[in-house]
Design brief:
heterodimer, A: mainly alpha, MetI-like fold, 2 domains, 14 helices, 77% helix, B: 303 residues, mainly alpha, two-stranded antiparallel ribbon, 4 strands
């Protein structure tokens, strides 16, 4: 009788070891697509098609030629797309975080009909798919001159406000009001109370919302494609779609090189804030 | 939480409301103005235009329900709806079963859990367009040996989209399931073991009921993600292959979102029909959201 728990634990230890082996194999298969892309980015174009899964050899190895060619390929410099993607993501995220956190605090603390109406409109907007507004939104952006990388953050703020306001609102409602009251008794106006007291307390939600917005905007294709003036401004997803979508003489090697270049910032970002990303996903999922 | 805010209400209106209320232009107006430009106006205008014939937004002419009638009698739209529905059902089942299985194993404390979690989540960060082209290259690399391609055979197009979706979404759902599984009290499992329950029995009667909220969240997340899928669909097959019928052509692997997009931008005379389709699409998505709201509310009442 006494040996039974021991037996079970040694049995489950064995199971766990087998599971580790199985999961190691699955993990290798899981990263394989990325490895294949990296491999192919070092092959000449014709070998990407004819020998997709082969390692580059002395004949097919192209060195960094694909990377060099990819930079200017398709009559549009790739570093421009990277620059625009980066600008749009950073500016939009900062604008959304600042404006919606202020907005949500006001809506949560000033309890009147107008606040309620705006809040419920925000919640409603989360349900609406982009296709519903894509045509009218792009025309509106065009009319108002919001079709450049420096002005498209306003569009992102408008279309993305719903989720951000919703998440900040939920957090403010769980925050004790006494601290804010103490601050205002000490003579702080609403602005000082917000920036000195409320905003620092919001830090965990700011990180969660920030990560959700960054992941959305960096990878977004259709909104910038319809809103931006494509002859002048492309983002990374638009650029890759533009190169691949134009069937015919696509230089696959160069496209693979660009895909590798577009994944590198994501991997770095993931490496730096993995913990926050996973936490952000959890809070975002539970609330959305 | 609700009780707390209620008891605090008098304090709110008595003290904080006064000075803050006047700050509406600073705190709310920037967001609200952008919200009107980026959502409210395009949304209302979109509903109006679905009853109009137009090429640009300025030459709209009221035509009543004729766009909706055209949308409902469009074979391509009907095909896209069925295709989306089937795809959604299959991907919800595949993604959730696999994500749950992975999460179940990764909460047993096996070696390398952290690495596995990192690896499984990673594809989720890559955008739909890039994902689509990565997998297109891989599938075509395999299918070329059999003299076909992912854009030539709709069966492979469907299978490819499911594999892509699973690769991307399993990691995300796994994170939510892990959080749910970690909240299962250890004592319950031990008590069950002492009572002689085997692994399967404790999974069925203890683990699954406790993680039910996570299952609901993940089911609806995959449901809406699959139903609204666009980027991956566009990049992987773009709707190809095309079948020609008596009335026109049907793109075999085109989902609803892509069908709406193509209606808008391939023929300017059909923009009104495209907008009507978009409204129908919105109603379907809203119905899913309402269903989710009702299910979660019911659970809260029961608890």
């Amino acid at each position: 009788m006494k040996s039974e728990p021991l037996e079970i634990s040694s049995k489950s230890k064995l199971t766990n070891r087998i599971l580790t082996v199985i999961f190691s194999v699955i993990s290798v298969i899981y990263v394989l697509p990325i490895v294949i892309v990296i491999m192919n980015s070092f092959k000449f174009n014709e070998y990407v098609n004819s020998a997709t899964f082969a390692f580059p050899n002395s004949v097919s190895f192209s060195g960094f030629k694909n990377y060099v060619h990819g930079m200017t390929f398709g009559n549009y410099p790739f570093y421009n797309s990277v620059l625009f993607s980066f600008t749009i993501t950073v500016l939009s995220t900062i604008l959304i975080l600042l404006c919606t956190s202020m907005c949500a605090w006001y809506l949560a603390r000033v309890d009147n009909l107008l606040s309620k109406v705006i809040y419920y409109l925000c919640v409603f907007s989360m349900v609406v798919p982009f296709q519903m507004v894509m045509f009218t939104l792009s025309k509106t952006a065009d009319t108002l001159g919001l079709d450049t990388p420096l002005t498209i953050p306003i569009i992102y703020l408008g279309f993305g406000a719903g989720l951000a306001v919703f998440m900040f609102f939920g957090f403010v409602k769980s925050m004790p009001i006494e601290i804010e009251e103490a601050a205002s008794i000490d003579g702080c106006g609403p602005l000082r109370t917000f920036f000195g007291v409320v905003l620092p307390m919001m830090k965990p939600t700011i990180i969660s919302v920030g990560i959700l917005e960054i992941m959305w905007i960096w990878n977004d294709y259709l909104l910038p494609y319809l809103v931006l003036d494509k002859r002048i401004y492309m983002t990374i997803p638009i650029h890759i779609q533009y190169l691949q979508g134009s069937y015919g003489s696509v230089d696959l090697g160069a496209v693979m090189a660009l895909i590798v270049l577009s994944i590198i910032p994501i991997i770095i970002f993931y490496g730096i804030c993995q913990k926050h990303i996973i936490k952000g996903v959890m809070t975002g999922a539970v609330k959305g | 939480m609700n009780v707390n805010t209620k008891t605090r209400k008098p304090a709110t209106s008595g003290h904080e409301n006064g000075p803050l209320k006047a700050y509406f232009p600073i705190f709310v107006l920037p967001t609200f103005a952008a919200f009107c430009i980026g959502f409210i106006y395009p949304f209302l205008r979109g509903i109006y235009l679905s009853f109009c014939k137009f090429r640009t937004t300025s030459d709209a002419k009221w035509v009543g329900f004729s766009n909706y009638i055209k949308a409902f009698s469009d074979d391509g739209f009907f095909h896209a709806f069925c295709y989306t529905a089937i795809f959604t059902v299959v991907s919800v089942i595949v993604v959730n079963l696999l994500a749950f299985a992975v999460a179940y194993v990764l909460t047993r404390g096996i070696k390398g859990t952290g690495v596995f979690r990192t690896v499984f989540f990673m594809p989720n960060l890559i955008g739909g367009i890039v994902l689509g082209y990565i997998w297109q290259m891989i599938f075509d690399g395999i299918l070329r040996n059999y003299g076909t391609s992912i854009v030539l055979d709709s069966r492979f197009g469907f299978l490819g989209l499911i594999i892509l979706m699973a690769w991307q979404q399993i990691g995300y759902m796994m994170i939510i399931y892990i959080a749910g599984l970690q909240s299962v009290p250890e004592e319950l499992n031990e008590a069950a073991k002492i009572d002689g329950a085997n692994g399967w029995q404790s999974l069925r009667h203890i683990t699954i009921p406790t993680v039910m909220p996570s299952i609901t969240i993940c089911t609806f997340l995959t449901l809406t993600n699959s139903f609204k899928l666009f980027d991956q669909n566009l990049a992987l097959t773009g709707g190809a292959p095309i079948a020609f019928t008596a009335e026109g052509q049907i793109k075999q692997t085109e989902m609803l979102a892509l069908n709406i997009y193509n209606t808008f931008y391939s023929n300017a005379n059909f923009r009104g029909v495209g907008q009507a389709k978009a409204v129908i699409f919105f109603v379907l998505v809203a119905l899913i959201a309402l269903l989710q709201l009702r299910l979660t509310r019911e659970k809260e009442v029961q608890q």
